[in-house]
Amino acid sequence: MATHLTTGESLPRELLSDIERAGYYPILVSDVLGAALAGEPVRTHLVHQETTLDHDAVRRHITVLALTDSRLVIAHADDHGPDLSAPMGAESVATATTETVPLRLIRGVMLAHLVAAPDQYVAGSLGRDLTLTIGWGTVSRVDLIPANCADPSCQLDHGFEGSITGDDISLRISADADGDQVLQQAYTFSAALSAAVGQH
Fold it and tell me: Which segments in the chain show pLDDT lower than 50?
């Protein structure tokens, strides 16, 4: 007999509504998120749905970020090609994954604002395009460039220099692509997460 974990039925109504509005297997996404939350109340959330073209196939991806008093819970769901090994022919497949990060482990929250016509910027508007990057040390990006020498005639190999940047998750939200409501939700979520990280 199957054991049923705490599922999407326990999620806040607004979060369920946003997952449903994204339109990507909302029952599945709600269930895996609810199971990861295990009944802990959600303070705020962000739902981001992305559609891309991959070799003439349309791929959908949804990311849900849920902030609790102690954790950041992340749910991803992706489209995959048909499962050709399945009996009765090809079937579509989706993968749903959750990750839980204690707030004390989050090392940084970075916001990059893309502002068109900055000479006409209106105070408080913050632009219509935001990239939210959250790092907690699981994934890092290494940027390397050849090391330079102060002597322009030097022919020696000085190796490389670079930087390591925490880049566990990065989401780009655009008012034009995602809507003003999702962009505002991203700003609200980012502020709450930044404040919560500062307290842990």
Answer: 1-5, 89
